[in-house]
Amino acid sequence: MHSRIRLTLATAAAAALTGGLLAAGAAPATAAGAGSGAAKAYDFNGDGYRDLVIGVPRGTVNGAKSAGYLVVIPGSKKGLDTAARRVISQASPSVPGAPEANDSFGAKRGSADLNRDGYADLVVSASGEAGADGVQNGRTTILWGSASGLAGGTFLPAPASNVNSLGSGGLFPADVDGDGATDLVSLNVAPDPKFHSVSVTSGPFTPGTTPPAAHEVFRDQLHEPRGTVGDFDGDGRADLFLNQIGYQHGTPSGLAPEPSWTYPSAGAVAFTSGDFDHDGYADIASGGGGGSELSHGGSVHVVYGGPDGPARSADFSQATPGVPGTDEVNDYFGAALSAGDVNGDGYDDLAVGAPFETIGSAGNAGSVTLLYGSANGLTGKGAAVFHQGTPGVPGGNETNDVFGRAVSLRDVNGDGRADLTVAAPGEDHDTGRVWEFPATASGITASGTTVFDAKSLKLTDPTGGLFGASLNG
């Protein structure tokens, strides 16, 4: 099989990974910080349609290998407008910095309307960026939205010298102190474990104004910081949920330095948040990927928010009643997650990637399962599964495609329902391919699914780049 992709998952709980292949939490459904005039996340031109961002952190820019770039595909009434795609890198006009080998620009991203001008902005990490002393501190850039889309950028100041690989574990715009201004939570996975950390850059953010330097709020010498944010207790402030650490409460002074609820699992590699039971409190979903006492092929652990923070929980795998498929060793069910309301019923649903699922004789072909929300939360009832053998889906199941290695639920056509985007970065010998599934009142459908890749988008390095290895947020 493809050793690069297998290694990424097999060492997810213990090794500091580069390239952005691990999915961090998607933008939370109930994150604080969005004003009444603010654009929705990922709507960069303010037209009411969310755009798709594909990170290509291993992409070559001006001859610099793994300098990294982004592909931005606008949403429209008819769905994604691939003809209007844009490529953004540190070589693009008005984007600060310069492309250098191993910068990994675009490895992680987060979106919000930071200055509330009606255009969503994009926060991007270049986790491999090194300072003059050669230390891999990383760098974070704000790309500003405008009527013409992303235009212009602002560097966030370099962090303290002991904060390494800024943003390599995830970037989350959210109001953690409840002052009405969006802050930026950064999870920093350093090459040296003693420098793993969580930092916060306090808002507000404004074009032309230098933001304050990030301040560290948590350091852990054992665990890679990965997780998600959301208002899990409904107090109007965003909270942070960290793997193996737990729930850090948002307070008027910012994130609480110590967890107020612990999270014992050591196997989670993917996180997202959404309101699966529509009770007004954000819920947490984490994917274990590998086998555990709950399943052979991976599982999803859901913790539901409440007035006192995270409360009741539930687990899902391919052994759960109603969930299609068979619980098999190394399926990595839960290796990628994204939350969104696909049928417009008010309950967020969950897309679950199982990139190493064997389908027929094709090992590691991959699949994506959709779990629906309800008054009681996520349920296996009515769950649907999609892969390249599903009628209506272009392509065919092949060994090592890893379909479902990245997933995203976002409303790209403005109909109030989240559409499903799925990537198979192993397709065509690691060239990669992305599918867009439309949403209907009945949920996601394979009918009308479109597919595109680096070649059809006319990118400069169309082969071997793991196109689609990371998607929105």
What's the arrangement of secondary structure elements?
Layout: H1 3-10, E1 52-56, E2 69-73, E3 86-88, E4 105-112, E5 121-126, E6 139-143, E7 153-155, E8 170-174, E9 183-188, E10 197-201, E11 215-219, E12 227-230, E13 239-242, E14 246-248, E15 250-251, E16 254-255, E17 270-274, E18 283-287, E19 300-303, E20 313-316, E21 336-340, E22 349-354, E23 367-372, E24 379-386, E25 406-410, E26 419-424, H2 427-430, E27 433-437, E28 439-440, E29 443-444, E30 450-452
Antiparallel strand pairs: 1-2, 2-3, 4-5, 5-6, 6-7, 8-9, 9-10, 10-11, 12-13, 13-14, 15-16, 17-18, 18-19, 19-20, 21-22, 22-23, 23-24, 25-26, 26-27, 27-30, 28-29
Summary?
The protein contains two helices and 30 strands. The chain has helices at residues 3-10, 427-430; strands spanning 52-56, 69-73, 86-88, 105-112, 121-126, 139-143, 153-155, 170-174, 183-188, 197-201, 215-219, 227-230, 239-242, 246-248, 250-251, 254-255, 270-274, 283-287, 300-303, 313-316, 336-340, 349-354, 367-372, 379-386, 406-410, 419-424, 433-437, 439-440, 443-444, 450-452.
